[in-house]
Amino acid sequence: MELLQLKYFQKVAKIQHMTKAAQELHIAQSSLSRTISRLEEDLGVSLFERKGRQIHLNMFGQRFLNRVERIFTELEEGTEEIAELQGIENKRVVVGATITRLLPDLFKEFLTVHPDVKFQLFQFSTTEIQEQIQQGTIDFCISSPPIHQSGIVSIPIMTEEFFLAVPQNHYLANRRTVKLSDIAEESFISLTMDYSFQESIYSLCIRSGFKPKIMFESNDLEVIGKLVTDGFGVAFMPAYWWKENKVNSPVKIRIDSPYYQRIIGLSWKERCYLSNVASDFREFTIQYFSHN
């Protein structure tokens, strides 16, 4: 069994199309097919179910792909570790987040100390971010809730309260606090249910005796804030959204029954090699949020 076979298998498994995989690998389709066939002969099982040119991983193929992904992750980490031992340090940190608005100030502070570091930031849903960190394609994730999954280390770095956002001319705009039961008849503008804290808020509404009438969904808080400002409904918004000075922003009202706050966590893959700069970023992030 050769690394080249594993590389070709990984590509075919990702694309699930022999011709397209061959094009991306810049090899003849016949050569790719022979390589995959030899790999299956070595293993003694078929790895794919074939339907014309379209192919899909079977049970054996899926299990084997998981192992192959780990092999290439280990090789990449080993290469980075050797480079660091030679004094050629990896200056890249890859971060995935379900919450990106908190991060520019964090990156800015870190870059004042480590100006030569390069960041890559990706925004994912809660489900996607778990897959990315397990596959080793990101170094860290910042999410709410923190990821609780075997093989992943998570620590809470901050808690954040949620408020009700209403238009400035809303009949509740002069209130300092509200109960959820006070807004049972309102039209809601909501984050999509891909965001786990949105599911938690939805459940709180149900326990308060009503099913929220969701008129609009978005994965962008700025869009939601603008729709609230324009009078299309009310929304639940995290405290940090109001930190910046916003012109004609919605009114912020504390929800005191039931009170809701979310926990934001920093997570990374257990027993996974981290470069020196990634380790520095982890410690810096923990300290940063403990003082902010």
Automatic annotation (TrEMBL):
This is HTH lysR-type domain-containing protein. Belongs to the LysR transcriptional regulatory family. One of its GO terms (cellular component) is cytosol. It comes from the Bacteria. Residues 1-58 form the HTH lysR-type domain. Pfam families: HTH_1, LysR_substrate. Keywords: DNA-binding, Transcription, Transcription regulation. One of its GO terms (molecular function) is DNA-binding transcription factor activity. It comes from Paenibacillus larvae subsp. pulvifaciens. Signal peptide: none annotated. InterPro entries: HTH-type_LysR_regulators, LysR_HTH_N, LysR_subst-bd, WH-like_DNA-bd_sf, WH_DNA-bd_sf. The keyword Flavoprotein does not apply. The lineage of its organism: Bacteria, Bacillati, Bacillota, Bacilli, Bacillales.
